[in-house]
Amino acid sequence: MSTWHLVTLALMAILAFWMVGAYNRLVALRNAISAAWQQVDEVLARRGEAVAPLVAALRDGLEGEGASLDALLSGQAQVAAAADGLRGLPVRAESAHAVVRAESAMASASARVLALLDLHPDLRETPAAAAPAATLREAEPRLVFARQVFNEAVQAYNEAVRQWPTRALARVFGFGTAGRL
Fold this sequence. Notes:
This protein is mostly helical. The chain contains 6 helices and no strands. The radius of gyration is 23 Å and the shape is rod-shaped.
């Protein structure tokens, strides 16, 4: 073999090893997004389990606020549906945007119901409402932290996908940018 052939083979081997390494890095970063989504999903599920009992406990005491309670249930249903869409493939930007929109509706409804609960200390102190309300209140800071971890994983992945020359490889293997929460 000539020197030219050996140099060409060496360059092809280097390129192949680089491609395998870049692919493995993108897969690892995508898996980090999935792990971070599991934390967000766990908090969303825990919060979702508290909504129905809280609404049931408050229905009788807040007869005139049925629309607020229904908005909370509706917001929770939207979040659950959006989370289901993101659960399968957490790197889909459209699904992440759907979760953000649903969370916005849920946040306003949740704030309204918790404010109503603060205005009615007799309802707030009942055992049927106290535990779900505490779960709902505790979920927010946990959700903020879990979102931050998710967004950091998304940022690392998106930076790797946009970085040259990995960008060319990402297109070949179908790695797109992920959406933030």
